[in-house]
Fold Phosphoserine phosphatase.
Amino acid sequence: MNLVVQGPNASMATLEAVAALARPARTAAIGDKALRGEDVAHSTDIIEAVHAAALGAQVDATFIEAGRTLADFALVAMDMDSTLITIECIDEIADMQGLKAEVSEITEAAMRGELDFAASLTRRVALLAGLEASSLERVYEERLRLSPGAETMLAAVQAAGLKTLLVSGGFTFFTDRLKSRLGLDYTHANLLEVEDGRLTGRVIGGIVDAEEKMRTVQRVCAELGVGTRQAIVMGDGANDLKMMSVAGLSVAFRAKPVVRAQADVALNFSGLDGVLTVLG
């Protein structure tokens, strides 16, 4: 096993101190913000100690089998809200109605796994009834920002020949625009109903919940002729756990604790391009 320790604001001394807890046979710097420890000890106690020290030092630590690279994978599947982008789109749409606090509270509870996702989405979308559909464009233009490292990560995986999937419990208004903007191969999200230029407070068709996210990853992998173990899956909320569970590498990005605990890679401080460092 290798241990990769990285952090955008970390000193090499900090990285070395965290890596030393795993007693590496050798270490190698990866640029000036990351370090790889090779042939490391990885008992449960050591893993817990390393992760605790990393969190305290505000760096990311990942134990990974030696030799794994992007070439082992065929697909990168990403959640959208709070993963590929920095915002929760529905919360920002609700802000146009003066309801951001109320909707954000429901969103947070759903992402922590405390509420059924489909029911929570139906409840949140209902609060948007009557809002001018043009408000969606305002959210996209004024508030939507890509997460740190997103463009670097996508450029690298696309150059390596991997396909890309954006699968979201959010809305097609945003996934469609990001698909065109970023050159993504596949997207899947919820479709908001609009009548006479205003949101009705309903979603058309089935809701993209945790099960549907997992099925989407499975469908795309089948279309590509590969197993789901050749997928890297990135997410931040409880509704991402099922699709992450079928992946060959699961990545929790600035995620809720329940997601970090189950992911292969947890990027709490690094950008999305931190996965490139992990995979050499």
